[in-house]
Design goal:
The chain has 8 helices and 8 strands; from the N terminus they run E-E-H-H-E-E-H-H-H-H-H-H-E-E-E-E. It has 305 residues and is α+β, with helices and mostly antiparallel strands. The protein folds into 3 domains: 153 residues, no CATH class; 77 residues; 72 residues, no CATH class. Strands 1-2-3-4 form a 4-stranded mixed sheet. Strands 5-6 form a two-stranded antiparallel sheet. The protein starts with 7 loop residues before the first strand and ends in a 14-residue tail after the last strand.
Length: 305
């Protein structure tokens, strides 16, 4: 997914979560506001696009707060060209991941009857004639929420629907196989977006194609790496202090400085190529981070997050 805050401005903090707005959002705002027609003034078009901003923000807060509720970490949200991204790191359990993913679309589900009810009431009150701009705004906001809900639930990785599918498959198939299957399905769904891009000649769909392709590729490589790790022999004398799983034996870690793969347990936390020391490492099984010394037998200490 989109993983960079570069080019973003800080907006505010709520519940310990920092919200940033990427400069590309302004580009899309200008484009979308000019396309919105049927209002008596531009101010109503701006209000409609700001409503989209609020709905996307609530959706991302759903992801973030749900992730925290299961013990995960979530402290940043970035709104950008194609919507929003909540930086969430739920515990690596299928149930926790599923709840963190499903909570975003659930926000849209909860908004749907409220907006539909408001639209029905506005019709009953005769706003079509007395306040046509306000009536049209409510109708469009209701439609935006429903479109976002349906779009996000498409089973195409890395959209919410594709990631929810991956979390559901995780229960019977495991972490690695579920990710591989979800990304392969994502590539199939990408074909449909490519067809739409050529049919509609839409730059937005072209960007979405690139987004899906890049993230499906990354997800597939990650899934294949997890499969290799699952088949790798286990290193004796070490165990995750949280889940007690022994780490795999092999060069499955990549140095952040020199980008060389190495076995962090064979070198006891040092990159053999550039000498950078890693005092802690993350368990591939449960996702918890712990100091290297905690992996070396003895009594199980608290896990450092």
């Amino acid at each position: 997914m989109f993983r960079s805050r570069q080019g973003s401005i800080w907006l505010f903090r709520f519940a310990g979560i920092d919200v940033y707005l990427h400069w590309m959002w302004f580009v899309m705002a200008v484009f979308q506001v000019q396309r919105r027609t049927g209002y008596s003034s531009l101010a109503w078009s701006v209000a409609e696009y700001l409503s989209l901003f609020v709905i996307v923000l609530l959706h991302e807060f759903g992801h973030a707060l749900a992730c925290r509720s299961v013990g995960g970490q979530a402290n940043q949200i970035v709104l950008w060209l194609l919507g929003g991204v909540a930086y969430v790191a739920p515990p690596q359990r299928p149930g926790a991941v599923l709840w963190s993913l499903a909570a975003g679309p659930l926000v849209n589900v909860l908004l749907a009857p409220l907006l539909v009810g408001l639209w029905v009431l506005s019709g009953t009150w005769g706003w079509q004639e007395t306040a046509p701009d306000l009536y049209r705004l409510i109708l469009h906001i209701m439609a935006i929420n429903l479109v976002l809900l349906c779009f996000n639930l498409l089973p195409i990785y890395p959209l919410d629907g594709g990631q929810i599918l991956r979390a559901l498959l995780w229960f019977p198939l495991g972490q690695a196989r579920s990710l591989v299957i979800a990304t392969v399905i994502g590539f199939v769904g990408l074909i449909g977006f490519v067809v739409l891009t050529f049919a509609l000649r839409s730059p937005w769909y072209a960007l979405m194609c690139a987004f899906i392709f890049i993230n499906c590729g990354k997800g597939l490589l990650e899934g294949l790496a997890l499969l290799r790790m699952a088949k790798a022999p286990r290193r004796e004398g070490f165990a995750c202090p949280a889940c007690h799983a022994p780490p795999p034996r092999g060069s499955f870690w990549t140095c952040s400085k020199c980008r060389k793969p190495f076995d962090i347990f064979e070198t006891l936390g040092f990159c053999p190529n550039c000498g950078v020391e890693y005092s802690a490492t993350r368990c591939f099984e449960c996702g918890e981070m712990a100091p290297m010394s905690f992996w070396m037998g003895g009594p199980v200490p608290p896990v450092v997050k």
